[in-house]
From TrEMBL:
This is IS30 family transposase. One of its GO terms (molecular function) is nucleic acid binding. Residues 165-329 form the Integrase catalytic domain. GO terms for cellular component: cytosol. It comes from Mycoplana dimorpha. Keywords: DNA recombination. The keyword Electron transport does not apply.
Amino acid sequence: MSRCYAQLTLADRRRLHHLVARKVPINEMARQLGRHRSTIYREIKRNTFRDPELPDYDGHYSTVADDIAKERRRRLRKLRRHPHLRRMVIEKLAAYWSPEQIAGRLLADGISLVRICKETIYRFIYGKEDYGLGLYRYLPEARRKRRPRGSRKPRNSVFPASHRISQRPDFIGDRSVFGHWEGDLLIFERELGHANITSLVERKSRYTVMIRNPSRHSRPIMDKIIETFAPLPSLARQSFTFDRGTEFAGFRALEDGIGARSWFCDPSAPWQKGAVENANKRIRRFVPGDTDLAGVSQRDLTQLARHLNDQPRRCLGYKTPTEVFMAHLHDEV
């Protein structure tokens, strides 16, 4: 028996009709048709003609069974059969909910009697019938074409175990030593171009640095960090903690360029670099995701960083990040 499954054809159903009429056992039907017995069982169960008013005509007829099977395969998808559900999904996508969040909330609230999963929503977004709606723009990655499921490559070789955050010294985690930074990348709407911002925060002083980048390519991003931090004394730029984004894959350049070690959060654990995540929230108040960076210069970002660094923080005893950073910097010098 072939391991490659194929739908039953009309010729198969004609043979099956005669076998059913002769009341041949299902195991024998499967043997003669070269199919699994479950395939034959499902075929008879699904595609048998039944009419309550004419029970004498109930049975498995080849042409009728073939039409029933084709009609089932032609049925519209759930989100086209149920317009109300379709509208709800589109509204939530436009609010930048992920398909998983939408499916989970619909199930949790019991809003719809029709159950859908995140895969149903992804197929709706990327299906030929509805692709013209451009709903992919609301997804986190805004991909025009869907990446095959399971195609994401593991990044263990890019970010080795020796650089995991679990290997980072405790004195970095408890903020007892000056000169250790966290970094992240602020991304903007794809239609506005590839420009982005590297945000970096010194863990002890909460001092923020912002760097404008023309693209997400790793080496130019690393070069900009090296250029920005090279004037500082070495004890003020000892290490950087990043997430596992590919934009930080060129981290070894930091060690070669300014002697700074790099550490990486665990997958899907941005809270492990909470200082820069909190800084990003402050930055987004002034540079939201729909900002066109074509009109934002590095000088503008430097002024914004200065504004943020001149605000007193409760965690610093209501001193400003600038005051704490400069005090530590003078001590190091």
